[in-house]
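TICKET: design request
STATUS: open
ATTACHED STRUCTURE:
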């Protein structure tokens, strides 16, 4: 060992021990975050964050009583929340506080900043580790339907706040006159609609238009139908089981793909079918993750989360469809634009952008 530099020789070359320890602490931090994610998911699903929101300082006994949970478990959960600095502890009052700023992220599913749905998805992703290992060895896919229901519910829960905050006020107005058509009365197809939240958000904002959600996953379509019934919009919002290559209907003024085109084994044929189903002056809205084809540019918290999800869900889902192209979720704008152009959608623009998504407008 070099006493001046703290470096040691090894089969891998000279190792800087300070850098080793620095990276070790980073990995330990990541491991702690992974373990803490279970506590975040529990807090969300058990209503602990919601019970704490706006309630000031509470003891563990008060929180347990409010939620109907066992106090000893609640106290242990609170200790973990304090360790992660999600919850603050007041020693004088022996009580715990969820700051309003934290509640905006963890306690209100209707807030555009709500992010707890991400941890619901994690239940499903860790559950498929063994089958993913086999896929790595064989090159086979892991179909969307092979995951647990936590993935479907978590995906809907995670994306809904972002769509709520941006879809109607920002994205649609950026779509080359589409908003005027929707106000007057248009036909819209939402491809890969999942639980239907994107479809229903548009339908609620534009009551003169008719909306049709399509998804190949029957349990998600059934959930979307229930959501439409609960919102009283089943008379003008329909949900059907169909793929992106065979969904029915013609002369759509708007066809949307919300965070799903990259999951398809044949995105080109999906856009070809969309082009054929558009009205003469109709448009496609293609919403994709805001990540880059240059892997170096994804070295940030959002890029890391998105590309890691591609390893676990997006790429395996596309490979399971045995199509000609498995993109992953970070193929980038140039690749998307080329696929659209080959499909006959020659007019392309970046219509809007958020830290999480990029919104493209494509038309003939």
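STATUS: resolved
RESOLUTION: sequence designed for all positions
ATTACHED SEQUENCE:
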């Amino acid at each position: 060992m070099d006493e001046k530099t703290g470096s040691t020789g090894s089969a891998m070359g000279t190792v800087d021990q300070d850098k080793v320890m620095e990276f070790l602490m980073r990995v330990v931090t990541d491991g702690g975050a992974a373990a803490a994610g279970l506590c975040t998911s529990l807090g969300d699903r058990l209503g602990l964050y919601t019970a704490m929101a706006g309630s000031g300082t509470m003891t563990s006994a008060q929180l347990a009583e409010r939620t109907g949970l066992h106090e000893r478990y609640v106290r242990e959960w609170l200790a973990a929340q304090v360790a992660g600095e999600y919850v603050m502890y007041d020693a004088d009052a022996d009580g715990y506080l969820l700051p309003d700023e934290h509640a905006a992220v963890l306690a209100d599913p209707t807030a555009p900043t709500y992010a707890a749905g991400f941890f619901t998805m994690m239940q499903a992703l860790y559950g498929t580790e063994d089958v993913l290992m086999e896929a790595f060895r064989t090159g086979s896919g892991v179909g969307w339907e092979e995951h647990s229901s936590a993935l479907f519910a978590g995906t809907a829960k995670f994306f809904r706040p972002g769509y709520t905050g941006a879809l109607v006020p920002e994205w649609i107005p950026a779509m080359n006159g589409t908003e005027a058509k929707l106000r007057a009365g248009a036909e819209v197809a939402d491809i890969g609609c999942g639980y239907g939240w994107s479809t229903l958000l548009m339908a609620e904002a534009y009551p003169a238009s008719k909306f049709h959600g399509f998804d190949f996953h029957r349990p998600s379509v059934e959930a979307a139908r229930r959501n439409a019934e609960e919102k009283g919009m089943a008379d003008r919002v329909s949900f059907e089981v169909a793929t992106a290559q065979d969904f029915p209907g013609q002369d759509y003024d708007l066809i949307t793909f919300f965070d799903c085109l990259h999951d398809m084994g044949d995105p080109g044929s999906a856009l070809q079918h969309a082009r054929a189903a558009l009205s003469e002056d109709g448009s496609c809205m293609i919403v994709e993750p805001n990540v880059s084809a240059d892997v170096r540019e994804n070295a940030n918290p959002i890029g890391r989360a998105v590309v890691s999800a591609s390893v676990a869900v997006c790429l395996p889902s596309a490979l399971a469809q045995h199509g000609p192209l498995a993109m992953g979720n970070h193929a980038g704008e140039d690749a998307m634009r080329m696929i659209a152009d080959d499909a006959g959608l020659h007019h392309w623009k970046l219509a809007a952008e958020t830290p999480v998504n990029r919104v493209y407008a494509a038309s003939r």
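CLOSING REMARK: The chain has a mean pLDDT of 94. The chain is about 50% helix and 15% strand.
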